[in-house]
Write a structure and sequence with these properties.
The complex is a heterodimer of chains A (about 325) and B (about 325). Chain A is an all-alpha fold and about 325 residues long. Chain A contains 18 helices and two strands. Chain A folds into two domains: about 1-95, no CATH class; about 100-290, MetI-like (MetI-like fold, Orthogonal Bundle). Chain A has helices spanning about 1-30, 35-45, 50-60, 65-80, 95, 100-130, 135-145, 150-165, 185-195, 195-220, 225-230, 235-240, 245-255, 255-265, 270-275, 280-290, 290-320, 320-330, and strands at about 85, 90. Chain A has a two-stranded antiparallel sheet with strand order 1-2. In chain A, β1 and β2 form a beta hairpin. The longest helix of chain A has 30 residues, at about 100-130. Chain B has two domains: about 5-235, Rossmann fold; about 245-265 and about 275-335, no CATH class. In chain B, about 30% of the residues lie in helices and about 20% in strands. In chain B, β7, α7 and β8 form a beta-alpha-beta unit. In chain B, the strands form two sheets. An eight-stranded mixed beta sheet of chain B has the order 6-7-8-3-9-10-12-11, with helices on both faces. A four-stranded antiparallel beta sheet of chain B has the order 2-1-4-5, covered by helices on one side. Chain B has about 325 residues and is of the alpha/beta class. Chain B contains eleven helices and twelve strands. Classes of the chains: A mainly alpha (about 325), B alpha/beta (about 325). The interface between A and B is medium-sized, with 23 and 35 residues.
Chain lengths: ~325, ~325
């Protein structure tokens, strides 16, 4: 078992390295570089950049060197914890990202927990009472939920929240705490602001998850071990919850790994609409501005988080699925 | 005669999906006595398993027990009609496992892969007996020992996929006997096993039956298993019991053309080499296109036009224990009466 975990860890490190290469390549792919984008930006506001000036900027950022040298310089500094400076913000990348990464993780986890809390019970109910009236209702609502763009839902909720309850849903903090240093008051303020954006984010994945849970469980409900459980005199709900639901939940453990990037990349538009201080909008802006170090750092961090998430879900699967544990001894 | 422990009368179990009606069990009757084995035999889809599941009231929707009586004699002497009980009631749950144990065909998929075999046996014990977790565990180990599983102290913590097919089926038997029921229903218990293991499992069932005076319903399509195990036999075809009687009568003087055909189709070591195996003409009709009259007439070699396809044959009595549902023996009833 230890050997298995060590092997997983080594593979995880190799994967992270591969992600860093791919990240770097992706950043290099669009034509032009940051300086080009910078020049366009400046000329849009009326100022003109001379050719020598542009070259000096390129030299400053190392953009005139071969790609692999640029990658080498970048990755060596990354390993030392220096992610470089954001060209657009003129500040270290770590400072620009700052709390946003943690905000993203907090809000993502809140959204995931809410998604599961809503979707799994409904999915179970829909499967156990297949073709019942409520199943049809949930199916209908589920498909509408899949079809409606989430930012639209966010806008509608914001509108009614403001109109009916005089709530300002945007952001994660009230204006008093926006720039204030961390304190218990600020944490409490966050807790008050967190539920609504988290629910809106959560609804995005809920409909889909209901369908998956329903399908998984319908498969399992037909298995003979459920009949066996009934035949020994188990109460129906217990026979369902202990055996088929347990089996139907298993695949969800393996999805933990990519939930985080899914929520981050899938929620950029919602985050913009709700003006949430997460990394999603920041990544979008960095990509538009060809702010290489910032975009690269965000993509790399998301990649690393995915690898860590996958590693954790492997450990969880190992813990909950005896068949995987048994397979490791062979 | 001794009162039967279980008496099934005119059992009717229909499946009603949206497309039509499947008459899975259509008026089956039989008696089961303590210490005896009743073999129910028939082709796939004839309603054997549904009959067994109807007794425990675990037929899956859209199936439902729609008529007849399932009279179970409880340990205290009371007679309960299981067909009238609510299938979710406490009493029905007490009977499942508590009075009637059930062994399923596929020992692999009939056990949960996420729980140890001990976990499932202990659950079955504690559902019916007031034992502490520790006592139940000891009881589970005893049960595993009883069904002939080596190293039961270690095996109790195994998962089903860590056991061989034969051991798994032994676990299923331990599970069925966990609460010491008086009746054991074995639904094709050896179909998924190789021949050697089959013989061992049948031997085990026979030993346990003798030790505990169990009444056994053995469901199979294998006439060889019936000959070896059963005291009496019920032959099922399309939801009806077409012939029933003592095992000797069924094998040596079969009356119903279907029983006769089934017996002819058993491979024999005495048969001439390279001769073809006898088969039954045609195949089981589609469940929605059930023939009128006797369900077997389209495949029957003694088919009487205008009789068999017009009305359902009555149950004709050959002797006290031997009954056949066929027009060929109508006269016998009349002379007897």
């Amino acid at each position: 078992m230890i050997a298995y975990i060590v092997r997983r860890l080594i593979l995880a490190l190799l994967t992270i390295w591969a992600i860093s290469v791919v990240t770097f390549v992706i950043i290099q792919l669009p034509p032009g570089d940051f300086v080009d984008a910078y020049i366009v930006q400046l000329s849009a506001s009326g100022s003109v950049v001379r050719f020598e000036e542009a070259q000096a900027l390129r030299q400053l950022y190392g953009l005139d060197q071969p790609v692999w040298v640029q990658y080498g310089k970048w990755i060596i500094r990354v390993v030392q914890g220096d992610f470089g400076a954001s060209m657009e913000w003129n500040r270290p990348v770590t400072e620009v990202i700052g709390d946003r990464l943690w905000m993203t993780i907090v809000i993502s986890f809140a959204a995931i927990i809410i998604t599961w809390g809503i979707a799994l019970p409904i999915g179970i109910y829909s499967a156990v009472r297949q073709y019942s009236f409520a199943d049809y209702i949930f199916t209908f609502v589920g498909f509408v939920g899949i079809a409606v763009p989430n930012f639209l839902l966010a806008l509608i909720i914001m509108y009614f929240g403001f109109k009916l309850f005089d709530l300002n849903i945007g952001g994660l903090f009230s204006s008093d705490y926006q720039l204030a240093p961390w304190s218990w008051g600020k944490v409490w303020d966050l807790m008050k602001h967190l539920p609504l954006p988290a629910v809106i984010l959560a609804l995005a994945g809920t409909a889909q998850l209901i369908r998956i849970m329903r399908a998984n469980l319908l498969d399992e409900l037909r298995r003979p071990y459920v009949t066996t459980a009934r035949a020994r005199g188990l109460v129906e709900w217990r026979a369902v919850m202990k055996y088929p639901v347990r089996a139907a939940l298993n695949p969800f453990a393996s999805t933990i790994g990519y939930l985080l990037p899914f929520v981050v990349s899938g929620s950029i538009v919602i985050s913009l609409v709700l003006s949430l201080p997460t990394v999603g909008p920041l990544l979008l802006r960095a990509l538009l501005a060809q702010d290489m170090f910032l975009a690269g750092t965000i993509v790399l961090l998301l990649g690393i988080l995915t690898v860590i998430g996958t590693f954790i879900s492997d450990l969880i699967l190992m813990w909950i699925d005896p068949r995987i544990r048994a397979g490791m001894h062979e | 005669m001794v009162e039967p422990i279980l008496s099934v009368r005119d059992l009717v179990t229909y499946f009603r999906p949206e497309e039509g009606v499947v008459r899975a069990v259509d008026g089956a009757s039989f008696d089961l006595h303590a210490g005896r084995t009743l073999g129910i035999v028939g082709e796939s889809g004839c309603g054997k398993s549904v009959t067994a599941r109807s007794i425990l009231r675990i037929v899956e929707r859209p199936g439902r027990v729609e008529g007849g009586e399932i009279l179970l004699r409880r340990a205290d002497g009371r007679v309960v009609d299981l067909a009238k009980l609510d299938d979710k009631s406490q009493e029905m749950r007490n009977i499942r496992g508590g009075a009637i144990g059930y062994i399923f065909q596929e020992p692999m998929s009939s056990l949960s892969a996420f729980h140890t075999v001990g976990n499932q046996i202990i659950e079955a014990i504690r559902l019916h007996r007031k034992l502490t977790a520790k006592e139940a565990r000891e009881r589970a180990i005893e049960l595993l020992q009883l069904v002939g599983i080596p190293q039961p102290q270690q095996r109790v913590d195994s998962y089903s996929f860590e056991l061989s097919g034969g051991l798994r089926q032994r676990v299923m038997i331990a599970l069925a006997l966990a609460a010491e029921p008086g009746i054991l229903i074995a639904d094709e218990p050896t179909t998924a096993l190789d021949v050697t293991t089959q013989a061992q499992i049948l031997e085990l069932i026979r030993r346990l039956q003798a030790e505990r005076h169990l009444a056994v319903i053995l469901i199979t399509h294998d006439m060889g298993v019936i000959a070896e195990m059963a005291d009496s036999v019920a032959v099922m075809y399309l939801g009806k019991i077409v012939e029933s009687g003592p095992v000797d009568a069924i094998f040596h003087a079969p009356r119903h053309p279907y029983t006769q055909a089934l017996l002819r189709s058993i491979p024999s070591v005495l048969a001439a080499p390279r001769s073809r195996l006898a088969t039954i003409a045609g195949s089981i009709p589609h469940p929605y296109a059930r023939p009128p009259g006797c369900p077997y007439y389209p495949r029957c070699h003694s088919f009487m036009a205008g009789v068999c396809d017009k009305s359902t044959p009555p149950v004709n009595r050959i002797d006290a224990a031997h009954e056949v549902r066929c027009f060929l023996y109508g006269a016998a009833t009349e002379t007897a009466a």
